[in-house]
Design goal:
This protein has 502 residues and is mainly α. It has helices at residues 16-31, 52-63, 86-99, 109-121, 137-145, 195-205, 221-231, 261-266, 271-279, 312-318, 333-348, 353-368, 377-386, 397-400, 413-419, 424-439, 450-461, 465-477, 485-500; strands at 3-6, 35-38, 102-105, 151-154, 185-187, 210-214, 237-241, 244-245, 329-330. A three-stranded antiparallel sheet has the order 3-4-5. Strands 1-2 form a two-stranded parallel ribbon. Helix 7 (221-231) links the parallel strand 6 and strand 7 (237-241). Helix 6 packs across helix 7, helix 13 crosses helix 19 (485-500) and helix 16 (424-439) packs across helix 17.
Amino acid sequence: MVLVRFAPSPTGPLHLGGLRMALYNHLFARKHGGKWILRIEDTDMSRHVPGSVEGIRKALDWAGLQYDFGPGKDGPHSPYFQSERLDLYKQYSGKLLESGHAYRCFCSPDVLSETREKLARSGSSASYDRRCLHLTEEEVARKVRAGEKHVVRFNNTVVPTRPPATDLIFGQPKDAHASLATDPILLKTDLFPTYHLASVVDDHEMGITHVLRGEEWLPSLPLHLDIYASLKLPTPIYAHMPILLNADGSKMSKRHGDVQVKDFIKRGWEPAAVLNWLVLSGWGVHHDAPTEGATNDRSSSPAPDSTRIMTLEEMIDQFDISAITHRNTSLDATKLEYINKQHLMQKAYTPGGLQALAEKVHDQIKETYPSRHYTTIEMIKQAILILEGRLTNIYDIPNHAPYLFEEPQLKSEEAEAILAKIRGEDYVRVIQAVRNKLEASPEPWEDLDILGILHKERETLGLSTKAFMRVLRYALTGMKDGPGIADIMGVIGRERTLARLI
């Protein structure tokens, strides 16, 4: 069974790049009938931000990405916090020490700094001179008994022969050993592991079959494979996802509030639209990828274009990891606006969707118009329907149609500009004619053919549609643009319509 993991660090709010990585893991697992784990990589306690885990879980829940195992969902792979798995890392580092694939290093930070400077001056690319590798067993034992602080380093001089690195997206990447630190640290002085050891141990112990993670870890892949080989463990299949960039091309960071998921929640974006936007950022180019040991992920259908509207179920059905681009991708906010608009329209016409949208924006409407009596759920539902195609975000309702919830602002600059284009005699004729006709109509308001009445009165008055409707739009809304006048009248009702036709 396919088993993948999303493994964020609790160092701040989840950002869009992290949400996209969780989404890709979710899609890959569900596509292949598998499961996925939420694993919290909290081995760097100095960077831990309280509340981060709760924020990550809340963001995933908002997005509808339900992990199978993890915090709050116990399973056979627990515990799911790396800080609770320290015995495991100590055990595996012990195996590497016993086999000679690791050694204890007692060098102080000052000594290490001096060593790096000396090596750099000599023209060496090494970051450490391996002096502790040559300590005798007796010297090491004596230092350990004396309680000297030390780390455990990987011994790069005795790496077993293994197959070359392969990646589902990047194929066979160039060997990056030269870019790695000399004999990287596996276990720190506080007995917490570095990412290199912890990720290998946890992925093996949890039975992870595929590792989908960010491209920033691609240079570390040779080291991780070396650790697997040194421990004589089978390796999972890797897929490194290109990095998601900000619109200006800079790397996405938790420190930038404009890319934090919680802010997209606060702004009212539809979770389905955000997922749709993210999944299409970098998905769409077929290329050759290694297939040995990989699931058959290639779809017979063409890759989606960058604005294709998709539900989560459609994403799962059509997800194709072989169509992930090699290039880093920048997010385009205008695409989110378009995609969100389409999802809003679809949701408004699904069972329960219109009600859910109205409830979502209800508090905002009440806060915007605290002293008004027309901020009901029913009024909001009607507002959503007549604003179809105009709403980019559900929280934009007050900007597009304030006149549904309060009286029109006829003294605004926009309203006065409209009035300036209306001839006085036309205003009086239109208002009187429409008002008289509506007052004389005995039918219930909801049964009245308002559009038919307006057309007939316009023809009787001999006015152009533009001149006729401008008068009514001014009187009823005080705004230049908006939904059809007949639709607006139908929503605000007979009493409020007649009160405005004066």
